Each structure stands twice: as structure tokens, then as C-alpha cells.
């Protein structure tokens, strides 16, 4: 077992009931399928749920993007007080595709961040 603890957690902002197009709903499905396939633990915030409005608005403030779902965030050390925006579906898909680049390309281009690099620090499903 690795000595490095996986303390980050993924937070996914979605819209379960309205507020999103069929394309956004499809992207949300693809995103949750990807997280499940990678066995990454995550929490969701339903942007259409009035009870989660305060958290949704905070996430919109962090991302700078309103009404576009899904949006993926990292809760650093699992804390709601330390949230970083990873991106909307298009960015997540791009980061996932970067996983296929050869290691030497990634080494020569340290600005490239793959989804696996992010998930390496995140909690996993048992």
C-alpha cells in the first residue's frame, strides 16, 4: 500500500431536475460513468435543488461558470473550504484523453495535467 494518503475528494455539480439540456444530461452521465470506471469516490451537488442553492452558488463563484453541467471540482483534503475547479465536461474529457499520451511527452510538457494525475490523489471506491 502506498504511504501517500488519498485525501482529496471529487465534487460533481450536476442538475438532476431541469436546468440543463439533454446534451448536458448526457455529459453528466458520461462523467459519472468515467468516475465509476476509474473507481473514484465523489459527492454530487444538485444545482436544481433549492436546498443546495448556497453550495451551488459558491461552486459557480469558484468556476466562474453558471448553468453549465456537469462541473467537476476537487475538495483538497476532502474539505469544503478548499475547493479547486477542474473543469466542465469538455475539459474533463480532454484531461482523460491526455492519459493516452506517452510518459516522455508528459515529462517534456509538465503543464499537461491528465485526469489520472488528479485522481491519484483522490479517494477511491472500495
UniProtKB/TrEMBL annotation:
Protein name, UniProt field: Uncharacterized protein
Organism: Triparma laevis f. longispina
Native organism taxonomy: Eukaryota, Sar, Stramenopiles, Ochrophyta, Bolidophyceae
Amino acid at each position: 500500500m502506498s504511504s501517500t494518503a488519498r485525501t482529496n475528494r471529487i465534487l460533481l455539480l450536476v442538475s438532476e431536475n431541469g436546468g440543463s439540456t439533454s446534451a448536458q444530461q448526457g455529459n453528466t452521465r458520461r462523467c459519472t460513468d468515467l468516475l465509476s470506471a476509474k473507481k473514484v469516490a465523489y459527492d454530487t451537488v444538485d444545482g436544481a435543488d433549492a436546498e443546495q442553492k448556497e453550495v451551488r452558488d459558491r461552486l459557480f463563484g469558484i468556476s466562474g461558470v453558471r448553468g453549465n453541467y456537469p462541473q467537476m471540482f476537487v475538495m483538497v483534503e476532502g474539505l469544503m473550504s478548499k475547493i479547486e475547479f477542474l473543469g466542465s465536461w469538455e475539459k474533463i474529457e480532454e484531461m482523460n484523453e491526455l492519459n493516452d499520451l506517452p510518459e516522455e511527452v508528459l515529462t517534456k510538457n509538465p503543464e499537461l495535467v491528465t485526469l489520472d494525475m488528479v485522481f491519484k490523489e483522490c479517494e477511491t471506491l472500495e
